[in-house]
Design brief:
110 residues; alpha/beta; 4 strands
């Protein structure tokens, strides 16, 4: 089931045998709602009732949202290619690579 915006909608879908529910995070975020809370509530409801339904967090707009969805209990996300690419990057990783590279370059080989 797509276009899920409440636990109640997810509950009806799971009870009906839906394999997946897909809450749209960016839409809720854009209107001041906490999308992570929705994912966590849906995950808790699915766990309580032992439904096999999985959560596909949709309308992801940033790597931050990918991480928040994962921590809240989403099984996977849908996002644009640039969002996925961004999610692999981190300025600390770049700094670490530069430091390691400099240290390697200064290593003397015998």
């Amino acid at each position: 089931m797509t276009l899920v915006f409440s636990v109640t909608q997810a509950w009806h879908a799971a009870r009906s045998g839906a394999a997946y529910v897909s809450p749209f995070l960016a839409w809720k975020d854009a209107h001041g709602d906490d999308p992570g809370a929705l994912i966590a509530q849906i995950a808790r409801m699915l766990d309580i009732h032992r439904y096999p339904t999985q959560i596909i967090a949709a309308a992801i707009r940033s790597s931050r949202q990918i991480g928040e969805a994962a921590v809240a209990g989403a099984h996977c996300v849908t996002a644009g290619f640039e969002v996925y690419r961004e999610s692999f990057r981190n300025p600390y990783t770049d700094m670490g690579n530069a430091l390691f590279g400099a240290a390697w370059d200064e290593t003397r080989m015998s």
